[in-house]
Write a structure and sequence with these properties.
Number of strands: 50
Structural class: mainly beta
Largest sheet: 22 strands, antiparallel, barrel
Mean pLDDT: 87
Strand content: over 45%
Number of helices: 10
Shape: globular
Oligomer: single chain
Distance between the termini: 34 Å
Helix content: under 10%
Length: about 850
């Protein structure tokens, strides 16, 4: 197995694009005598350079002490003096090879054929490490592969990220890992580079219901971290974290790329998308700019048979990203980045059971509009013994989310309580009053829920970490976030013929909700290298949350039960610890193991729901305790790898979504405890008769451990019930081969398969919302050619045109909605690099 380490001169959010070694300025190195392999790793970390070597070459060799001012190349030559090894330039780093003798008796670098030197380097622990030596259950998706397959959104990337479950709703997608599915703050952290992002609290105290999605264009890689990451990543990472890392400016080369793609969907339409990337070096090895722009279009496939409309769910996403990288010598760097993205989905991408696959009977149109702005500054300083990173981010998400409200009106049309509210009486309505109430409901049918919202967040983090030799390592940091959002929740009558809102607006009800969450935290980890390749780590995070929820009614809704004098202004506070203990050991060359105990948490809050009993208005924080064993194995030639993780988690005071008896309101409540246990397995086999095979298997058993009953809500469960939405089994596999033809032409062929296991949409079989979902497999094939600066790829997704039910939900008293996979799609992508 080849080993190597990269230490980034910028943020620990992506692998460094470093200049050639010989051009770097000298710097001070102080390394005591130690095993040569350890010395090479220390030099790689301290010089921000990649050094690749085989452990077989360094085994049993000691390095001399190194003290003085050298370029990295000079320092490396000093460490290798007298070892029988020499260095050879390999891309932007160095390859260590045996020294041989030429005819004149002088040593020379032997010409060896090294295959697969691109060891995957990740920053999951907020420091650089090889993925096979990182004590976290994780998978990595390469950005170049995503681009070849035409993957530009999280939904289509999910099959390449085993364990990640996407729960689609009318408003967006919820991210779920390891069966940790619940309402409230997100259970899976979403990071774009160093910035954590989430959705607005909204009317349901559920910011996790919709993740802000930036297009996956010009991506370096995606890291999916499975299991609680509460120490380093804080709240929102109870089930794990999804890190999307964009490419950063290259300080050496002026480069660019243009890409165009065309997509055609069965049962739908066609669309053309494009993107452009430019990298400009202003000062070689000191200042560079990278610009990315894109216009992505997804054809619609859903036909609204009620309104006579076709392909109503088309999506268009346009955006631009800019990043400036300044390298002020070997110690100081700064990365400034900004992004803007505007997107629109024309209607909900769900089909109804009464109409059939890819057909809907929604009475109201429900477009989704979104504008996201993001800015970030990352400063990095590298000292002789301590490295410091400071991050400041700001983002704004302005959106209008909509859903069909007609099912609520159907369910309430003959509700005696609604009639009593309409006439402000305490006794039951007579027949004349009930007829008048029903006529009013009919007059405003159909309707949509129309919710303009805006969220802003300011985030700051500073952390310091030890560097250099020694068995003791440490990191210490502080974090601050202020998040504010406001939502204007309107129930609007729509035209029965078109499904569009009538003008001037006819408002059936209106209320506003304002939320402010302020959190601070300090965190740290301490590690001790008790043996070569063995380490013990303890970590802790002390958090302090203050949350304020305010709301009131502007227009009473007698149908659902909001009244004019309803108002709430409540504050809640959470303080506590999130702890971690980890032991890892290199058991043998290519065999790495770890065992850990870790915790995750989410803050509580207040439900701004008119008529909700006082006992349910406030919900408490919840916590997850996780025990995990992991094993990562790789053959000496890196042709085969196999990773296994076993875990068992206890989820206490679970925050979960409940519905009022009339289905008009969702809210968050604590439903007790659950036990989740599972297995995660991934394997890769390379160069098997020229093919590369990869596969994954995820098993999850998530169950309640106590009865959850309430007279104020529907849909709760009993001890032993499986958690809804969570499939017991998911699996994926891919098979790929590359051919080299004459004149520099390279061809590739790839097959993909993904299986989503069975799950249910509610807790128990007696519940009318106990709907079947999952239980389907989809397959795809892609082929491409690459020559010099050109590449062409053609892919076909969902070859069998399966209408997989990925998510099932009942639209109040309306029809059942299914969010499924896209039908058969053909995509052609052409790229030209400069």
């Amino acid at each position: 197995m080849l080993r190597g380490l990269v230490a980034c001169a910028l943020v620990p959010a992506a692998v460094c694009a470093a200049p050639a070694l010989s051009s770097q300025a000298p710097r001070r190195f102080d390394l005591p005598a130690m095993p040569l392999g350890q010395a090479l790793n220390q030099l790689a970390l301290r010089s921000d350079r990649e050094i690749l070597f085989s452990p077989r070459l360094t085994s049993g060799r000691m390095s001399p002490a190194l003290s003085g001012t050298f370029t990295p190349e000079q320092a490396l030559a000093q460490l290798l003096a007298g070892s029988g090894l020499t260095l050879r330039g390999e891309g932007r780093g160095f390859l260590i090879v045996p020294a041989s003798r030429d005819k004149g008796g002088e040593p020379s670098a032997s010409v060896v054929s090294v295959v697969d030197l691109d060891g995957v380097i990740v920053t999951a622990l907020k420091r650089s490490s090889l993925v096979q030596q990182t004590p976290v259950s994780m998978v990595v998706a390469d950005g170049e592969q995503l681009a070849r397959l035409g993957v530009t959104d999280i939904e289509r990337a999910a099959p390449m990220l085993p364990g990640l479950k996407l729960i689609s709703t009318a408003f967006g997608r919820r991210l779920v890992l390891r069966g940790v599915y619940g309402a409230g703050e997100a259970t899976t952290g979403l990071y774009y580079d160093e910035t954590p992002m989430t959705g607005p609290v909204g009317t349901t105290a559920d910011p996790g219901v919709m993740a802000p999605e930036l297009a996956l264009v010009d991506v370096e890689r995606i890291e999916l971290l499975r299991g609680p990451q509460g120490t380093l990543y804080g709240s929102g990472a109870m089930g794990g974290a999804l890190r999307i890392l964009f490419k950063r400016p290259d300080l050496e080369n002026d480069t660019g790329a243009l890409a165009m793609s065309a997509a055609s969907l069965a049962h739908g339409g066609e669309a053309v998308s494009g993107s452009a990337v430019m990298n400009a070096v202003a000062l070689p090895e000191a200042l560079a700019l990278r610009l990315t722009a894109y216009d992505q279009r997804q054809p619609g496939v859903i036909d609204n048979v009620r309104l006579g409309l076709s392909d109503v769910d088309g999506v268009r996403t346009r955006g631009v990203r800019a990043a400036v990288l300044w390298q002020g010598g070997p110690q100081v760097s700064a990365l400034i980045s900004a992004a803007h993205q505007s997107s629109r989905r024309d209607d909900i991408a769900a089909w109804n059971d009464t109409a059939g696959p890819w057909r809907t009977v929604h009475a109201g149109r429900a477009p989704f509009d979104s504008d996201i702005d993001l800015a970030s500054v990352v400063l990095k300083w590298r000292g002789h013994a301590v490295d410091v990173t400071a991050v400041s981010s700001w983002y704004r998400w302005a959106l209008v989310r909509r859903s069909d409200y007609s099912g609520v009106l159907i369910g309430e049309r003959t509700n005696a309580a609604g009639c009593m509210r309409m006439f402000s009486i305490a006794a039951a309505c007579d027949a004349t009053q009930m007829a008048s109430y029903s006529a009013y409901v009919d007059s405003v049918y159909p309707a949509i829920l129309n919710q303009p919202a805006e969220l802003t967040a300011r985030i700051h983090e500073i952390r310091a970490a030890s560097s250099g030799p020694g068995p003791i390592g440490w990191s210490l940091g502080a974090y601050s976030e202020v998040r504010e959002d406001y939502i204007d929740s309107q129930v609007r009558h729509v035209d029965p013929a078109t499904g569009a809102p009538v003008e001037p607006p006819v408002l059936i009800g209106r209320r506003g909700i304002e939320n402010r969450l302020s959190q601070t935290a300090v965190f740290g980890e301490l590690s001790y290298a008790f043996a070569p390749g063995g380490e013990l780590t303890v970590g802790a995070r002390r958090f302090d949350y203050v949350k304020r929820d305010r709301g009131g009614v502007q227009i009473a809704n007698v149908i659902s039960g909001t009244w004019m004098d309803y108002a709430i202004d409540a504050r809640s506070r959470e303080r506590g610890w999130s702890l971690k203990a980890l032991a890892s050991r290199q058991l043998a060359p290519g065999l790495f193991a770890y065992a850990q105990m870790s915790q995750g948490f989410r803050p509580g809050g207040v439900n701004v729901v008119p008529g909700l009993p006082e006992a349910l208005a406030v919900y408490r924080s919840d916590r997850l305790d996780n025990a995990e064993l992991g094993l990562k194995g790789q053959s000496a030639d890196r042709r085969f790898s196999l990773n296994l993780a076993l875990y068992r988690a206890r989820w206490r005071d679970m925050q979960y979504a409940a519905q009022t008896q009339n289905r008009a309101f969702n809210y968050v409540t604590n439903i007790g405890a659950a036990r989740i246990q599972g297995l995660e397995l991934e394997g890769v086999a390379q160069r098997l008769a020229g093919w590369e095979l990869a596969g994954s298997l995820t098993l999850t058993d998530a169950r309640l451990t106590a009865d959850q009953l309430s007279n104020s809500a529907i849909g709760l469960g009993r001890a032993g019930d499986r958690l809804p939405i969570v499939p017991r089994l998911t699996a994926s596999a891919s098979l790929e081969r590359r051919w080299k033809f004459g004149d520099g032409l390279v061809g590739r062929l790839r097959f993909d398969g993904f299986y989503a296991g069975l799950a249910r949409s509610a807790f128990n079989a007696a519940n009318p919302d106990y709907l079947k979902m999952g239980g389907y497999a989809v397959f795809g094939v892609s082929a491409g050619f690459e020559k010099a600066a050109w590449s062409v790829d053609l892919g076909i997704e969902n070859l069998l045109d399966r209408a997989g039910r990925a998510v099932a939900a009942r639209n109040a008293s309306g029809p059942i909605e299914y969010f499924g996979v896209l039908p058969r799609a053909a995509r052609l992508t052409v790229e030209r690099r400069f």
